Input
Amino acid sequence: MLALALPTGRVHRDALALLTALELPTGKLEKAGRSLVIEEGNYRYLLAKPMDVPLYVHYGIADLALAGSDVLSESPSSLIELGDTGRGRCRLVVAGPQELSSRFWSHESAIMGLRVATKYPRIADGYFAARGAQVEIIRLNGSVELAPLLNLSECILDIVQTGTTLKANGLVVLDEVAPVSLRLVASRRSSQLHWREIEKILERLVHSRKEEL
Ligand code: PRP
Output
């Protein structure tokens, strides 16, 4: 039996659609309700918060996982990325009020000490370090757009999908950080132990991506 960790929340439906495209059983999973472990056919699905998914693979609880590339970049766990599913697409951006734009794009000294609210402190640290600016990173667990509204921060680094949340809160994209999509990942150990089963899934992933073109 293969244990596959799946993210709950906004990308859960994308993950389910992908499993269907990969011909994995999803009947019970569709009706999971509040259950967090679902056994179906040869699979044990583990439903975890997106940010926690890599940990379940890292600690050997899950053999495989679907995780956003945003979450993988933020995670200290080193996993093997088997493939880009092309699903669950969104973007990581820096956003803030329009008035911040000229300061944001001037010399790095102008953004020294900038307060940045985010669920992604590692990514934010890397982004601003690459710009040569020391900023103050404020880690939040959600509703990040609230921070600049209430002057907790000057800007945010967060994901944008439709752009509705930014717009509703009077924020604009100041810079693109990275595109995001769901990736299929495994630990080194499970990719060796279960390679034959994983290979079949990968073949179906390649096939399903070709069909999308
Ligand atoms: C994410 C993200 C933004 C929003 C962007 O939050 O952090 O707040 O979605 O989506 P949009 O561009 O389609 O409006 P999520 O809904 O996952 O909840 P959270 O804020 O509690 O993390």
The two ends are 32 Å apart (CA to CA). The chain has a mean pLDDT of 96. Residues 195-212 form the longest helix (18 residues). The domain at 90-180 is CATH 3.40.190.10 (D-Maltodextrin-Binding Protein; domain 2).
